[in-house]
Amino acid sequence: MAQDTSSSTSTSNRTQQSWRGTTSEDGFDAADGQPEARVGLRYTLSQVRRDPTALLGLAIIGFTTTVAFVAFVDSIVFDVLADVAFFADLGVRQYVLAEAVWYNPVNDPDNAEILLPPVGMTNELYPNQPGTLAHPLGTDHRGRDILARLFYGTRIAMVVGIVSTGIAMVLGTLVGSVAGYYGGRIDDALMRAAEVLFAIPFLVLVIAFMTAFGRNLTFAMVGVGIATIPTFARLIRSRVLSVREEDFVEAARAAGVRDRNIILRHVIPNSFAPVLVQATLQVGINILIIAGLSFLGYGAQPPTPSWGQMLSASRNYMLPNPWFSIWPGIAILVTVVGFNLLGDGLRDALDPRINN
């Protein structure tokens, strides 16, 4: 009898110890001893924090976002404030920060040498004169500092990537959710319209849109966003088709909840995980697309600094100074890789089939 009591006590102790286990090992919350839910924002963030590739991608995105914000303030905000007499008297003007600590990315610096190589290196134009610290990455064909233009070109890349993806994500999510929830003729009409967009080559569609409305960044973002709507619509529709059959959706219908509220409050939130992952990956893809459009002359127009426009200008100088084209290519590569790494981390954290 005593032996049975001892065995029961031992089993009870083991059970209590298991309930006090750490979250990272056995899925229990160490704070209150309750099982941790493997869903939700808190669990997703905890999984992302444990993923070194996701953290690397997040660090890259954080750095580029900070650079883009500073460039936005100096190039856009200060340009608007310069029209106000009070700020104009204080000396606020476009690129005032760049001129105070560096070089203006638009205007040629005084007495600058064109196609100067990076610091410590030489090229065909300067075989006996290595680059200097005044221009760490060298200068372009107009004598402008390449590092300064890369810095301010980050604003274009981040803004167009995020805004165009946001347009596609919002509209695509609504279209796919409505199509998947109602089905029937509504589904056929919306998805056939999406397939028409898919049938047109992507760049042809965007270039035609910009030719009709204007060659500027605003229409570039809108055009890329519209062309990407079918990607998000088809992705979330496949999830909505299964979610709409769940018991909680049937209960909401039985309770008399309107279809609009069911879609916004129940269907979309429970189908949104793959859309979020795709949006993270799509930002990097759209940055590449906008850079390609700028290379073709359909994005940011000179003298506005942008990575695609820098690549376009460097194609005629690849032999005398190859570094001119290498640096913007590296900037695009690193930024896109950062978003891809974060997207992979989010996919692993949000996929319930992966045993973390």
Give an account of the 3D structure.
It is a single chain. With 356 residues, the chain is an all-alpha fold. It contains 15 helices and no strands. The longest helix has 37 residues. The relative contact order is 0.13.
Which features would summarize this protein structure in a list?
0% strand; 15 helices; mainly alpha
Secondary-structure blueprint:
Elements: H1 2-19, H2 23-26, H3 41-49, H4 52-81, H5 85-89, H6 96-101, H7 146-182, H8 184-199, H9 202-213, H10 217-243, H11 247-254, H12 259-267, H13 273-295, H14 307-314, H15 323-350
List low-confidence stretches: 1-31
Largest sheet: none
Number of E-state strands: 0
Q: Determine the N-to-C terminus distance.
A: 42 Å
Summarize model confidence as the mean pLDDT: 84
Protein structure class: mainly alpha
Summarize the structure.
The chain is an all-alpha fold and 356 residues long. The chain is 67% helix and 0% strand.
